[in-house]
Specification:
The chain has 98 residues and is of the alpha+beta class. 22% of the residues lie in helices and 28% in strands. It has one domain.
């Protein structure tokens, strides 16, 4: 799978699933690098990774949490298509196993 992380336009994306239970901020940084978005004015998201996996937009983000991102273990996956959930989870597990 080919993954590129960057400041992609995520307009129209929506919730597609979750990262594996217990996924840490540190493991996300290991696989995807530092988050490329920090905080929104409405306070619903504090950090977000945006990218494309095999050409499909994905986002990984915290949602309505009152804990520090660095302590979070509950992450959402967003995108335009439901397939990104399975793609991101497969890629993440593969990269963590290396």
């Amino acid at each position: 799978m080919k993954v590129k992380v960057g400041k992609f336009n995520a307009n129209g994306s929506c919730f597609q699933g979750h990262m594996p239970k217990g996924t840490t901020y540190q493991s996300l940084v290991k696989v995807f690098g530092e988050p490329n978005e920090h905080g929104y004015g409405d306070g619903k998201v504090t950090v977000e990774w945006r990218g494309k996996i095999d050409g499909e937009l994905f986002t990984i983000y915290d949602w309505k949490t009152n804990i520090l991102a660095e302590d979070n273990t509950n992450w959402n996956i967003g995108g335009h298509k439901g397939c990104v959930n399975e793609m991101i989870n497969s890629y993440f597990k593969e990269e963590m196993g290396k």
